[in-house]
Amino acid sequence: MPRRTRVAIVGGGPAGLLLALLLYRAGIDCVVLERRSRDHVLSRIRAGVLEQGTVDLLRLAGVGARMDREGLVHEGFDIAWRGEMLHVDLRGLAGGKTVTVYGQTEVTRDLYDALDAAGVPIVHGAEDVQPQDLTTETPFVTFRTEDGERRLECDFVAGCDGFHGVCRQAIPADQIRIFERVYPFGWLGLLTRMPPVQDELIYAHHSRGFALCSLRSPLLSRYYVQCPVGDRVEDWSDERFYDELQARLPERAAAQLQRGPSIEKSIAPLRSFVAEPMRHGRLFLAGDAAHIVPPTGAKGLNLAVSDIHFLSQALIAHFKEHEDGLLDAYSATALARVWKAERFSWWFTSMMHRFEDDGGFGQRIQEAEFDYLAGSRAAQTALAENYVGLPHL
Ligand code: FAS
Ligand code: PHB
User: Fold this and answer.
1) Taking the model in full, what pTM does it have?
2) Where, residue-wise, is CATH 3.50.50.60 in the chain?
3) Ligand 2 atom nearest residue 46's Cα
4) Biological process GO annotation list (predicted)?
5) 368 burial class (0-12, 13-18, 19+ CB within 10 angstroms)?
6) Among 36, 133, 193, 253, which one has the highest count of C-beta atoms within 10 angstroms of its own C-beta?
């Protein structure tokens, strides 16, 4: 592990790993500092839907081969409401664009494999990482491994350490502004080695709560049900989960459900969150370290990738062309796209979930949202173009 590098990347999730690979491809040294073990990082089950822009960037980074072989191109999805199914024709409505179903775990695995092959230093088990002297020309990062205290000198620090990371916390409170909305429910997710209800995703609105039928492959299904925010995984047996999922799906879809033992089950809280700006001196935030969206719009991972698209271009311009215009514009550029995805994720979440305290007015507004969507090509086009991902620029 070198004592000095160009970019110290804190966090070995998709954002940090993709940045490391893009910088390596541009001949720029970097080091990834990851708190957890690789097995732990790869044991997480998270996002499942990749926007076209994400697919394109992963190919550009040289990690698209397995995704192209195993990923499932989806041309549309269904919205279930009052027992009906509204098909959203992504390809037809969003100018031929589609999404690819390929799990974040697989994206992360592909990135790790490519970085190992490239010999990019990745430190797992990096404890007590502390970015320091961020507003000077000589920032550095201290951390601890089993070999003892370490110090990494660098030109820049990329804060890719997720919502619970340390990089955002390293910004003085009077230099950062937080925007947040916490939803009064969570998503209970279940993974099972069974064929899915159908080959396209189903987003279901129901008086009992939201449900989502997704997949990772034709023999690996991923399901979610909205659950009370205080619930624990141990409160939900597989049987209770499947009973609730079936109760929230239209009969035709429910009849297709094949119940299998859960191989993963977890509850994710839902929030909308943005930290502004995404830069402090020589620290640049990217991905969940800077923003969180409710997973309804399948934007979290894709936003992390678009941040890295902007940040990698800016860092390459700095080191290769001695140009800092992109670096100086990074926060504003990234936030412009982040807020559009925050809006879409909030809107789709507000429409599809059961809000107990909304009273009659909130439920009537949800009904009107769906009726307008079902009757308007313009409304469906707006939904489709946001779902496939707005242009990076
Ligand atoms: P990540 O959180 O993935 O990675 C950050 C990395 O930094 C982690 O490996 C962490 O161990 C490490 N780290 C943290 N603190 C550190 C420290 N102090 N020092 C060193 N390393 C540190 N998005 C969707 O689109 N669809 C979904 O269904 C979906 N489900 C999700 C479920 C859960 C439980 C969570 C938490 C997120 C989910 N997301 C989903 C969003 C998710 O996919 C994120 O958007 C994505 O992981 C963002 O990637 P990163 O920004 O790299 O952050
Ligand atoms: C998933 O497959 O995990 C998934 C798909 C679509 C979403 C959220 C999660 O909106």
Assistant:
1) 0.97
2) 7-74+98-179+271-349
3) 3
4) benzoate catabolic process
5) exposed
6) 253
